[in-house]
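User: I'm curious what two different proteins look like when written out as structure tokens. Can you demonstrate?

Assistant: Sure. I'll show them one after the other, since each token string lines up with its own sequence. Here's the first protein:
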Amino acid sequence: MLKLNSVMAALLLPLSIASIQPAMAVGKGIDQEASEGNGNARDAYFMLRRQGPTADFDVAAARHAAVEQKISAKPAFALPAAYQHAEVWQPIGPAPMIGGQTPTFPFIPSPVSGRVSAIAIDAQDGVVFAGGAQGGVWRSSNSGATWQALTDNLSTLSVGTIVVAPGVHPRNQATVYLGTGEGNFSGDSYSGFGIFKSTDSGHTWQGPLGFAQFRGRSVNTLAVDRANANNIIAGSATGVCGVAGLNPCGVGALPNRAVYHSTDGGLTWTQVLPTSGTERASRILQDPNVATRFWAAMAPLQPGGGTNGLFVSNDSGATWTAVDGVATGLPVADLANNGNFVRGYISLMNNAGTTVIYYGTSEVPATSTTGDGGTLYVSTDGGTTFTNIPAADGFCQGQCTYDMPIAVDSLNANVVYTGGAGASSTDDNTNTGNELTPSQFMRSNNGLSGATATFASHVRSTDQSTALHADMHAITPWPGHANEVWIGNDGGVWQSLDGGNNWINRNTTLQIAQFSGCDLDPFDSKRAYGGTQDNGTNGWSGSVGWPHLDFGDGGFALIDQVNPNNLVHTYYNQSSNLLGVGYTTNGFATTQGNYLGSFADDPNTTTDGNGIGFTDPVLFYAPLHLDRGVHDTLYYGTNKLYKADAFFSFPNQTPNIFHALGTGATGQVLAPGGVLTAIETVASIGVDAQTVFTGSTNGHVFRSTDGGVSFSEVDATPGVIAQYVSDIVVNPRNSQIVFQSRSGFTGASPAHNVRKSTDGGTTWGDASSGLPDIPVNALAFDPVAPNTIWAGTDVGVYISSDGGATWNPYSNGLPNVAVFDIKANHTTDTILVCTHGRGAFSLVLDAIFIDDFEGN
């Protein structure tokens, strides 16, 4: 089961779009139920971009080989002679996104940074570690006032868990374990390469340990024995290599998802649960009273799997016994009989010599009227019996596979916290702030009471000054501090000193935004616009703090290259639900809730659609393009290509401003069996483009030379390169030179992930020598040096200074992270890269000469 779509899109978009114009019906195209159901669309988006040539192709091995190839390449590649010195990528944020989307009613904007999947605390040194989903490990020694990135040069920045080994240590010499691979089971929960170990509080790292057992998986739970530091137990789960769980990392090539045991500090590992087969592990903890006892909460994979639910080991992790069943008061976690049991979570505490266990499952409670999962149990006798806590029913809010942490206070066994997706409503919709339960973060002060325990929502500070972002992934009480709790969610990190009554926003210098697309201002080198996952669309004006400009999932984001006040972006797209864009003609002055909208409407209920086919198949992040000649002509791709002339001149929701291009009464299908992914035009400034290119999910490249009246396929996806076309770019100095990038794995050498045409797109050849077999996501021609082109890949940036004949990595100051978009601007001599996990970076090029440049 995969993560459902973001609560942001589900709950805030209806408000923002509805508020655009009173005539537009509330929730017309974006209702909660429909948008919650399109999580599979986002998962499919990532899957299509990162497929292997066969179902059992070992994507994990290919990704590891790509990292090794990058490391072994030239360590200091020289930029072209046009530059006076080697340029260094500069981090530009967001750190944080200001006024981010924290989904409460009434709305309380709060700073956000990005998805945090793990939090660990070294109470001895007063240090907090936070792990970004694809942003690596960060360290703060001043309670989150500032953060330091620790793992930018590791082979993966995908974090599943962070554990500080128990025991006394010299200052700044804590032993810290990093389990790589995000274990939140979402479509972009990147897998990892195993476990890394630091003996100096995260400043340096050894590893990966357990590569054979954990490659292509997520290590999302890990326990270090307090009585024997060499005794370690780790749990692995699904990791998706950037691919949806439908085809995770080469199904037949990967090690089992399971519980593994090491007795030599992680050098070697043995699978101990299940003894054969594969089951995901969610949470492993050592009993606070009995050092030889460990507990494991599992996540079933298939009906009748037999190794599901809660387990206990009484021999330091060597062997395990199931705990669930009638005798203990727990459900038998067998998917054959209990199909909604897909994840479990545990939290333990020593209560006067007795171990208290809180155990959460993804079960849909029998009394549920919504179908939302989340059932909580408590044991006050060390795990012999358990009692259900009905007040917590539905605490996951329908997204238990993605977000369901629970935690007990470090000093008070009665205080227990739960996290989930959450609802953004009050009890009476009167803006009083009294939220219904269950909500995305709840606290009970009497959890030990079991059946009579009560819960209250604690999403907002009581003074209404700040609020939590949706989708909780980590709840970590500070050891020895009553009521101090740190949380990590899709918006970053928050701290409370009073059990959640009030929150302190700790999204200060964390740069972990997951960009989907971005663009540069045509005239200002310190101005950019970008769409981010779960955190909307944001703008950069020179400061690392980026103002949050619009709601939802942010996809493609474009700036009109003649009038930069014209901005357009996508939220998410789904056939028969939402197809279209949000836009403004007032630049960054337009903020969330005030964007104009242009959407397709259901022809059975209304006639004011924008001309895009309501039932067209479409990518989750539908491709957009502004014409290279007539700057305000907008293109939008489904399986067809749509064009809107003078797009920004039309009022909100004016009917039928888009028209389909190509032959046929309703336009031409340009993505047979797929959908469009890339659009490019060739034109002189002020002249409507006559040459138009499109690329598709399944490798089809079409070209029109008559302004879109007709299209012909020009690259028939030969052999191993029938892969997602992620970008098409035309050389602005010579329109006969066209490049396309492919996002996927081919298993070949060269990888065929960049192709080149020297005759305007009529014929194509390989141009990928030097690139690893890794998805290439975006391309951009250098704004200064002729014959030079940049590529954004899943392992960073590469450059070719010989027209694509050879490629070299250029990571000078750039973390080892997936680059999802790259843009270059000749007027400002600036290059912008937007990463999926480490925010944005730029190069402002210091050139000896300015090339004679034709085009824009």
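Here's a second, unrelated protein for contrast:
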Amino acid sequence: MALALVLGLGLLAGWQWHLHGQQLEQRQDLFARVLADHASHVLDGAAQTGTQLITSWSQRLPATPALQDSLRQALAYQTDVRAIALLDAEGLVIASTRAQELGLRIPLRRLSAKPLAPGAVELGHVLPVRSLDGLLPDSPPTPPGVGLLPLFQGLELDGRRLLLLTQLNTDSFSNFMSRTLEQDGAHAALLDGQGRRVASPPADGERNESIHELPPFTQFLPERESGHWVGIGLRDGQQHANFRMASRWPLLVVVETSRRDALRAWWSRSAQGLLTTALFGLMGLAALLLAARSQGARRQALMQRDLARAAVSERDEALAVIVSSLQETVFRCDADGFLRFASAQVEALTGLPLARQIGKPLWELIEPPQRHRLIALLRAEALRRIDDQEPRLHQMQVQVKSVSDGSIRSIDLSLRALRRDGGLVGFAGSAVDASARVQAQRFLEAQLAFLQQVLEVSPLPTSVFDIERNYVFVNQAWERFHGRERDEVIGTRVGWGLTDAQRAQHEAMDQELIAAGRPLRYDTQLRRSDGAVRDVIVYKLLLPGDAQQRPRILALALDVTELRDAERAIREARDAAEEASRTKSEFVANISHELRTPLQSIIGFSELGEHRSGDQPRLQAMFGDIHMAGHRMLSLVNDLLDVAKLDSVVGAIHLERSELRELARAVARELQPLIDSRQLLLQLELGSEPLRLKADPQRLQQVLRNLLANAIRFSPVGGELQLRAWAAGDLLQVRLLDQGPGVPEGELEAIFDAFTQSSRTKDGSGGTGLGLTISRKIVQAHGGSLWAENRPGGGACFALKLPRHVPGAAPTEPMPL
């Protein structure tokens, strides 16, 4: 009997341990399913919010303030999302709900992001940062345990590939796990498909390495999406663990209980039964066979009672966990509609403590306009007699006013009658806060109405047709252009009134648009209602469809007939002007060359006559006048040749490395005799730093010579000239200042025209009127500019800027004027 008692106790303990293991596995599988469903629900909500944002931007990318507002509105309804940001293909943050992230350039390789096709959704791996600015090289270290889970959605707007980044808060997953498992003593973690930890409540003995060696990754996946094992786990020591994959997302949940905790729980639940069994066994042994049968029956009854209590306790605990983890509000009413049970979530809907709501009629919790509908439904269900009919499910949308903040919330209410033996015993139902969805739906409807109005008042002929090429919409501008009413157009085939070639062109473009998905632009011709053939540019955009509606094509026509006519007129005028300029340049060059030959003879013979008539002063003076006039004429011809060369390809500029200070000093030395003859003082302020540039040195000296010669010619005897030059960044600046009569304000620009002189220098002191024209053309050929100013104290200032074009030239401080 003693051996039988010991053996029986051992078998009983083993059987209870086996039952406890099955119950533990079932409970952990339930927790894993709840946690995986929660993760999927959070990710589905974030992806749906991103899709709604992308849909609202489907036409074009809004301005930055509008982007910021739409992102903030979307974030307001996402309790598990830390931030939402919009990035371009280079990682530049275009918009974000966190103002400090705006304008940052985030390394996409650190985000593990890659270019996504429009409409694609991808979940990244968890990042050990609190926000995007934590990814920058100089960001401060992030505390351990902090992280964010990025959700990427691709979109294409205005021809740009963009990324919508939803930053999920990993702490929300950890907190939900803690709340769900706090009464059970189990531990859980959310992992990605590569075995990286996404979120988990803090725990002692937690392993941070070799998680990818757990059985789900080495034995079960991908053949099985859930399972149970005993062995290594998330923490040190032997673990009883369950795992389950999240639906539609590459995430899995692991729930485990250490072997030590499982034994402790088993012992605490089974000790009473085992001790009682042992006590009665000893009593039965002392009483021998007198009470053996009664003790065996009692022992079996006690075991069944304990097992039943344990099963009821397990079911109650699992039900409590499930109810507390639901985001929906569940409730139960009696047959009269009075509330008898409700989950804690009802407090968030009404703002009232749960204790104050129990016992109240259900209809008093909703707004008056919907109360009569609910009362009528409850009465009809109470009066309805059923025999073999299934209980009916009633659904309606009602409004509930929160006592805490006074806000009105839209609630989706589901109600089912509970019947027993053909009679009504009560109602069970659930309530879901649909305020965010209703508000988003209203916003979307307003956006669609606004888009419809914009298309209607657009001055461009606009139409929308399906991929079978049947019209579904045309605006007023389209009606005026084609002379047809929309009532006779909607539903008809696209392409009426077109030739076969035009219809084939449009159909080919539509097929290309459908295949590529990118907006198209092409030129064509359309006949207007008055019979005129107009040149138009057609813009086409593919409007994506969904399960209820197939894709459509938006087409806009821009009439560019007048623009094309203007372009042709401008092109013809330009060709005529270029031809006239070329003819003029050739004429000037030819006539100048023809004039130089007789001028050389005149100058030569006049010079010879001047030398041989030394004994005849009158004759010598006459030859001297001829010689001077010939030189003056030759100078004019040379200037004309310079103008002709600069206007043609013959006068090309040959750039080479030059030093402006050396060129300026050489010109000053060349003109020094002329300066001395007029008793002038020339001050050269060229600085001590090199003034290097790439230029044609001969042409640049010609500019400086013309400007300095003009200044000498117009300065009074005994006056002062200043030639200044300095470097200003990538430019060299030159100023030549004199004390002459200056230039009238209305002639500051005209003096650079050919054969034009200032009205103050037409007394014979001026030249041919080509020097400044030639100088400006040379400066412009170098990429610079030349202009004239009047000095405040009298005199003129000629200023010029030249690009340096010298790699590595160090900028110097500008010289003050």
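A detail about the second structure: Residues 2-56 form the longest helix (55 residues).
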